[in-house]
């Protein structure tokens, strides 16, 4: 089945059938925030959200991940259990689903494959949730996305009020749709309402900049005087990078006790001075100017050159969470 309808009264049954197939990670409400977490029951699902504070990136690329544990005395290494069970990520907004495909460029690099990431990726079906209520900080259409974009999804659900329109995108999505309880054929009137709703939501997201033009301009802007002042308000707190669904910098550290320890992979940020501090004491990105330039250049220039797409999906989280109201739309527009 390529398209279908699930009535909202049947959604719990659908989630329960997904839970019988494997782990279901989905939006839940915790302490006034929407958080992606493994559902303990279908009751915990909350699809009435605009977007989550943190993206579901954490599922594939956790904030802290144990690579292995060791015992010094016996020279023993204990690898962690690599997750290889089927899972389903439900309710992922189009910007965040697209961001997963950009993380693939890093963790599925032909030379450096991250088995921890790839095992989860290959066993996980991604069910997206179309946007019906974009925020003033959203600009996905300026980075090649949109409220109905299906990049990175196996299936898309679109909220039509008392029902969801289901669209299977990949062969895995089609196979899953054929197994789910309570999917009916989509009537023509629902398909046409969904199309109109998509067009209306699209018109609610104003263009912020032309990503292609900015990428091109940044190629010759390393020494531009704009960098001298544009970073001045920045506190270097790194909130922008920790909430970003595409940021992927990490550090690897050993946490030791007397005779045993564990090696962990942790999120890191190019906005911290320590990120580039060498053991010699030399730091190639000593100033805030250099760190801001790196963040913007990497997202809109280097990543585009290396992978064909800018490393920003226009989710707007960095704008919403910056304590001093830095706005990435204004920063990059300085180069238009
Ligand atoms: S969130 Fe704002 S203040 Fe903090 S590092 Fe990012 S741009 Fe700077
Ligand atoms: S840079 Fe900002 S707007 Fe772009 S994907 Fe990251 S958090 Fe979202």
Q: Which features characterize this protein?
A:
single chain; 336 residues; alpha+beta; eight-stranded mixed β-sheet; four-stranded antiparallel β-sheet; 12 strands; binds iron/sulfur cluster
How is this structure best summarized?
The chain is of the alpha+beta class and 336 residues long. It is built from twelve helices and twelve strands.
Report helical residue fraction.
25-40%
Q: Count the helices. How many? A: 12
Structural class comes to: alpha+beta
Order of helices and strands: EHEEHEEEHHEEEHEHHHHEEHHH
* Count of individual domains: 2
The general outline is: globular
Unreliable spans are none
Number of strands: 12
Would you tell me the overall average pLDDT? 95
How would you explain this protein's 3D organization?
This protein is an alpha+beta fold and 336 residues long. It folds into two domains: 3-203, no CATH class; 211-333, no CATH class. 33% of the residues lie in helices and 21% in strands. The strands form two sheets. It has an eight-stranded mixed beta sheet, with helices on both faces. The protein has a four-stranded antiparallel beta sheet with strand order 5-4-12-11, with no helix packed on it. Strand 11 and strand 12 (260-267) form a beta hairpin. Helix 7 (211-218) packs across helix 10. The termini are far apart. Bound molecules: iron/sulfur cluster (2 copies). Residues 234-240, 271, 322-324, 326 line the site of one iron/sulfur cluster.
